[in-house]
Structure prediction request, 294 residues.
Amino acid sequence: MKKKIAAIGFVGVVSLLFGCSDDAPSPAAPPIAYNESSSSVVTGASSSSFQQQTPTSSAVNNGGKTIYEHKIIDVPAENVDYPNIVEEKMFCWTPGCEATVVPPSSSSKAAPKSSSQNAITIDTPENKPPIVNGMTMTDARDNKTYQLMQIGGKLWMAQDINYAGVTSECFNEQESNCTSNGRLYTFNSAQKACPTGWRLPNREEAQAALDDATVPWSYSGRCKDGDCNFMGQMGFHWTSATPQDGDKNFEDNKGDSYTVIIVEKDPDYAGEKERLFFQVDSKTKRFSVRCVQE
Prediction:
């Protein structure tokens, strides 16, 4: 009887265990590995290069443990198709949309202000015009005053200029000669010697001076390589004229190193020879300057 009861009890326990096992969850299946990717553009270490980085996440089962990995794959920048907004002035994210988008007209943009609108002019002695009072002119750069005269309808200086603000010299390096006869200049310096609003005479203006017997030529001489001569005998004045056939020494002095001067000879020195004429001479010699009002 006891054995029978024990057997029944054992069977009941076993049945109870199997009945409970029907409600227990099944063992968890290993996670399914997957890949998920997205794209983003980031700036690389250098400001002049770009990279496209593609993050990739994955999950794998390793001996009952789930391990997650995250990797970044670099894609060369030349393989990335960026919209060219600099050259195309516009871009679209969808193909064909350019036909439906009208770029803004350049005329709608405000015109930039000219730099001249913001320019400030400062009066200095170098750019202030001289003061003309009747038939005298005072150079604002050094306050020297000169006599004026009308020649061929133009206002001329009747004296040679004595402006020391550019490369020049006095005859025989004596300041008294500059005071009485003005300074001697190379051609390059002569173009800067006249005050604002005044300049070297052109051929037509110079010819009018040669034809006017009332012009008081100074016969200030010349200097070349430190050697000065002809003071009181001849005068030489720069012009802006272009050399031409008929000018003295035209055939011998051709090229950019030469230009036209006025030559004046004292009547006693000239004798029966020509007194006043155009001559082609070296730009490096030092001659006198008389300015004409523009």
